[in-house]
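Q: Predict the assembly, please.
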Amino acid sequence: MVIYDFSNLMEENIGEHGLSSLFFKEKEDLLQTVDRQIKEQARLGELGFMQLPFDQPEIDKIKRLAAAARGKWENLLVLGIGGSSLGAMALHQALNHPFYNLLPSEKREGCPRVFFADNVDPELINGILESIDIKRTLILVISKSGKTAETLAQFLLCLDHIKKVGDPHQQIVIITDPEKGPLREIVKEGFSSFSVPPNVGGRYSVLSPVGLVPAALLGVDIDALLAGAQAMSKRCETLENPAYLFALTHYLLMQKGKVIHVMFPYAYALRGIADWWRQLWAESLGKEGKGPTPVKAIGVTDQHSQLQLYMEGPYDKVITFLTVKNYRTEVNIPSFFSDFTDIAYLGGHTFNQLIQAEQLGTEAALTKTGRANAKIILDQIDAFSLGALFYGLELATVCCGFLMDINPLNQPGVELGKRYTQALMGKSGFTTEKEEIENWFLKRPLYQV
Amino acid sequence: MVIYDFSNLMEENIGEHGLSSLFFKEKEDLLQTVDRQIKEQARLGELGFMQLPFDQPEIDKIKRLAAAARGKWENLLVLGIGGSSLGAMALHQALNHPFYNLLPSEKREGCPRVFFADNVDPELINGILESIDIKRTLILVISKSGKTAETLAQFLLCLDHIKKVGDPHQQIVIITDPEKGPLREIVKEGFSSFSVPPNVGGRYSVLSPVGLVPAALLGVDIDALLAGAQAMSKRCETLENPAYLFALTHYLLMQKGKVIHVMFPYAYALRGIADWWRQLWAESLGKEGKGPTPVKAIGVTDQHSQLQLYMEGPYDKVITFLTVKNYRTEVNIPSFFSDFTDIAYLGGHTFNQLIQAEQLGTEAALTKTGRANAKIILDQIDAFSLGALFYGLELATVCCGFLMDINPLNQPGVELGKRYTQALMGKSGFTTEKEEIENWFLKRPLYQV
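A: Predicted assembly structure:
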């Protein structure tokens, strides 16, 4: 199961930059209040993500789609951005081969290669089109609102290509709000579709069809994923649970100036989890002039990039190692050059031992120098663990938001940029924004060198 | 050429969180002092990276290697971590196709597919071995010290595999110190090699053989790369240059609490540049309890992940857009569904217009809300621009380090973790560290849930 180890956040182990050993007792009432707030909002249906592990009306339909797709499509193209792609990317990167798209079809067990179009960079878009045969591609269009400019532009492009060589109604599946938005209207023209529950926001939607449909198409065991989330949900029924403790420790350390929160997986496969969490944490908690800045680092790679800063920079960070007890393979380090002391000690060990020694060595060094660091421990990387991890971190985010007394479910700050963009793209109804761009922004004093 | 636009760092445009319009005048003396310090250290040969654009004794040898490799190898496997991989990865990602490894050989013009082994995760290592035919693979072993545990472990593994099926002396090329370290000793057993100048540290080595050899093997025009660096070097002969201004503005804004520095490329191809810069900035400046935390974000993707925080979180950031005037391709957005106002405005535009409107819209929104943001503008993504960018950011880093009165060339903070790791791996001579791990670290109070 998932363990949260916060030993190295404690004063006892790291000195003045840590938490008092009484912190939980001291904050138990506060946490109880937040717990009641969470349960009340859940009861009112405002925290839809908490229902997803238990209530998936479309699960059989998802499985049927995945079963029918096996061996049928060469490629899966996922059109979605932010919460509409990060969850599926995290699942794919964690559970499939690191060079999945290079594998022959039989090693993918008939699952398609996958391309995530999570940007509108024309070079990326063109690169995808050059890499796939559109006739042999299944396309998921994912946008909860049905209005996401990036995803809609890609949809228009794909539709145009498919109309020339294939059948749009066979090749395009839409995942959007069950009732609202232009994409839902378009579904009525004969497209297959799945629904995002209206009370589940993008960044909390990985366990809804937004994450489950692409995951199932890519061979992920979505039952195990949901079972892991269920298990974590059960474990979070008592106050002293990993999600609340993650939230509370980070909340308290923020008050001590530790406002940069690093997620540091020691597994290449978990890099997407860090990306997914980075959205969850930033978009949920960054508002009202407050909010931690989440940072993704990758062990061991970033020991050779960020560790100097983490060891000797300001005491402004909490670093969370995301570790794995058992990797899915073992690779030996052979023995050669035994005359060289800088080489000889490696031979006879395994890469597994090396990565774990590096993690532990880094953890010990950070602890020794009084740097706040915690650890999330997974037994192994599988769908069940990831389900538990997703759910736990989502709950932790809401808990931390309530501790901070902000609303972790909205994202009002992204609207202004969107309006300026729409004005620049000539969408009607944005005269104020167009005027601002033309008469203020483009005429402001420039400083260039 | 490369332009640094700092308009939106100025009080005039963003209010109280910006810099006075007199900042350059006020700090001209300080900058002059730093400039003299840089020139003096350069004269003493301590800033080797400043010579790299002009002095490349091995350039012809690099080109011969690359020419001979064309069409010969199916794969290039780069063993290197941190400064020994980030530069080459950045160049490859910027200048080659976004799905390069999926291209047929002819579209790669005979250049090999490439795998960067920048981690020791056994799942990644195994994944690479499963994806390549080792007989048809050229291997670069890159470590300046010749002692890097991760790279040496991979080297041992590859050597073992090649000995069984191929010829190690034909397939392995070593890039290391010209005289010191175990890898240089091993070269004497008959391996090809290139030298990293002793006065060029890992994170400043992209324009040395560390970056040039893999880049040339992957088809990069290394003459143009060096020419770009030369041009930037020339441009930095006067005080008011992009490198110094980047350094000075960031230094002054750090003093105003803006300690998180975001590099935000609006081009998928430049994601590796942000990773490369992240090491350069963190490892150079994070010491003595000081130092900014660099963050990589990708436009437009991270508008749907981090923008909420950037717009409404604390005023603790400087965001640098890295923009491109001319993308290397143009992709049209077709017109369909003209009845829907949320879709109709997109059709008839290009993806190029969309990404640039999103960048400008985001920039205007950040500026409107008083958020410090700057912009590095490239005409296009090519080897010349990247050479200029690499050189400019390296010089900016040294300049910022001197402004902060720290040594931007060392990284003393990474040693302790390495020693603990070596103790855990059973290397002799680490009894103190072994004892500390066993008697302190593994026996400290644990807090888990």
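The domain at 59-220 of chain A is CATH 3.40.50.10490 (Rossmann fold). Chain A touches chain B through 155 residues (CB under 8 Å).
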